Amino acid sequence: MKHEVIITGDGSSSIFIPELNEHYHSSHGAIQEAEHVFIKHGIQQVEKESVTIFELGFGTGLNALLTTLFAEKHKIRVTYYSIEAFPVDNALLEQLNYSELLEDTNDTLKTIHAAAWETDVVISEYFTLQKIEAKIEIFQLQQSVDLIYFDAFGPRAQAELWNIEILQKMHKALNDDGVLVTYCAQGQFKRDLKSLGFRVESLPGPPGKREMTRAIKSL
Ligand SMILES: C[S@@+](CC[C@H](N)C(=O)[O-])C[C@H]1O[C@@H](n2cnc3c(N)ncnc32)[C@H](O)[C@@H]1O
Questions:
Q1: How far is it, in rounded angstroms, from Cα 124 to Cα 26?
Q2: Secondary structure tally for the chain: helices H, strands E
Q3: Which of 31, 41, 138, 154 is most exposed, with the fewest beta carbons within 10 Å of its own?
Q4: Ligand 1 centre and the CA of 1: distance in Å?
Q5: What is the pLDDT of residues 82-93, one digit of tens each?
Q6: Fold of 29-217
Q7: Using 50, 70 and 90 to split pLDDT, how confident is the model at 33?
Q8: What mean pLDDT value characterizes the chain?
Q9: 132: Cβ below 6 Å to ligand 1?
């Protein structure tokens, strides 16, 4: 499928797939959305000095980069597992402008992209990454995690990644009181989360989106 690098509303780049009519991030602002959903309502809410994260959809590595920068700034030790079924071509990754916009002076994004798959790689003092090339449908994480960045393409483009079986896997992977965050606020998705025993919070979304979802595993 053809992939194109585009510039979103906040000046940061993203990738667009014309065939699916789907963007990797909000067209209103890729960095703005990722910071709001995954940093502000994700890692920033976890009150621990050491946090294990699972991301569904490594994509451009933007969430991984923002999380590294957050971990270094706040001296929080992060172990980050990220699954990706269709790794983005290097030619496209080189066109992304995240390092310039985020003052990534150590070229952390390059280190993230160069990291080997299927093994733990120390990216910086506080951030260790394992990229996993697999489809979430046939993968079960062995480690339990504190936080899930649920960043699949939207239910319109990929309904099969928002069904109850996948959400059950996410529930199983989370520690007690673990949290799943996503940009999505679809009604059926939230009902499914509730039916699995998650406590579901609807929070204000990033600019251009009314709501997002935060789900807490509660016993
Ligand atoms: C919304 S994008 C993720 C954006 C990414 N988090 C970032 O920071 O750039 C969704 C990602 O999920 C990946 N994906 C699609 N189907 C998948 C599957 N079955 N299993 C795992 N990843 C999948 C896509 O290739 C894409 O990279």
A1: 28
A2: 7, 11
A3: 138
A4: 14
A5: 999 999 999 999
A6: Rossmann fold (3.40.50)
A7: very high
A8: 97
A9: no
